[in-house]
Amino acid sequence: MTTFRDFLVDEFPDAPVSELSGSNNLVYLVRTDQGPVVAKHVVDGDIPLGYLAEATAALGAHLPVQRIHRVCRTEDGDPFDAVFAEYVEGENLAAAMEREDDGPSTDALVDHLCRFVLACRHLPPMRDGYGLYKREAPALATWPEFVVHYGRRYWNRVRPFYEGTETAAAVDAWLDGGFAEAAKAHTAPHTVVSIDANLKNTVVAPDGRMVVLNVPIAALSAPAHAVGAISLHLRHRPPYKPFLDAAAERLCPDDAPLVPHFELWGMLGILSFYAVRQPDRQHEWRNWGSPVLLDDDFRDLVRTHLPAPERP
What is the pLDDT of residues 272-295, one digit of tens each? Predict the structure, then answer.
């Protein structure tokens, strides 16, 4: 069977092909006469490719995105599931933020992140009701059920590392009713939100533009969910409070008190990732670019924002 690289060589004769990434999906840079093209062999695609192209176009109507030139699908007779997109030169946002002297200004960063949240509200719906916009994701009947379903799924992988601690008891209580009670007290109309706003999925171009590379995993949820998915990655960094202040005014004025709940929800997802892949290295777990260890950040978030569980 021909490899994806062989396929690219046949598709673009005489064009140099070099590998950019081989972690999950194989990604190559093809330097054609018309300009560089990024070719991604989608092996573990959570988002159906047809929806990916549609969602990218919708997002691109509101802010700079990596434009998709072509989509190949095996279900249509193509030899590979693949995406061909423009090459965006620059540095990922998470790395650029570490350079405080010449990285993006706080005002520019906050404005971009707010515009990203608002742009995601224009993403096309992929399903009825509540559930992640990804392949084979379950459909949940209610919004609290959706939030708790995934929170508990992540927590079940992480909880053994915190067995017998007050942190574990507080998260247990949060999933067993604490979130639902908080949600009743702070309601807002639901909209399409990004639930995995990884800062590495944005590139800071040489001209200073911030360009979104990948359509995020989305879902129908509360505005505070979209904000917490981003502020989670800004914790312990200078832009954290300015972003929350702007978000409370521009993005989630009715349910801002729920933002820490969704920071916790997202942090459980990151902890779950490490619990499965690096179970013996908990002392090294760290959110991307964070100045603090993930374990310390998690315990601090729970201690600060969740009520202490009642002692029997």
Answer: 999 999 999 999 999 877 889 999
Range of the domain at 80: 4-87
Q: What are the phi and psi torsion angles at 36 (to 5°)?
A: -70, 145
Joined tokens for residue 103:
């990285």
How far is it, in rounded angstroms, from Cα 160 to Cα 192?
33
User: Which CATH number characterizes residue 61's domain?
Assistant: 3.30.200.20
Is 311 part of a structural domain of the chain? no
Whole-number Å distance between alpha carbons of 251 and 247:
5
pTM, two decimals, is: 0.92
- Whether residue 68 has pLDDT greater than 90: yes
Residue 67 CB coordination number (10 Å): 12
| pLDDT for res 285 | 95
80 in the same domain as 102: no
Cα gap 225→219, rounded to integer Å: 10
CA–chain centroid gap for 161, Å, is 24
310 within some domain: no
Question: Are 237 and 125 contained in the same domain?
Answer: yes
Place of tokens 């018309």: 34
> Same domain, yes or no, for 298 and 162?
yes
Higher pLDDT, 119 or 197: 119
Verify that 78 and 168 share a domain, yes or no: no
Please state, in angstroms and as integers, the Cα–Cα distance from residue 14 to each residue in 31, 37, 124, following that order: 9, 14, 39
Q: Could you tell me if 161 and 300 lie in one domain? A: yes
Report the pLDDT value the prediction gives residue 214, as an integer from 0 to 100. 81
Residue with tokens 């598709």: 11
Q: Do residues 171 and 119 share a domain?
A: yes
Among 111, 67, 76, 118, residue whose Cα is nearest residue 210:
111
pLDDT digits (tens, 9 = 90+) for 90-116: 999 988 988 767 789 999 999 999 999
Instruction: Please check the confidence at residue 210 and state whether its pLDDT lies above 80.
Output: yes
Q: What is the mean pLDDT of the chain?
A: 92
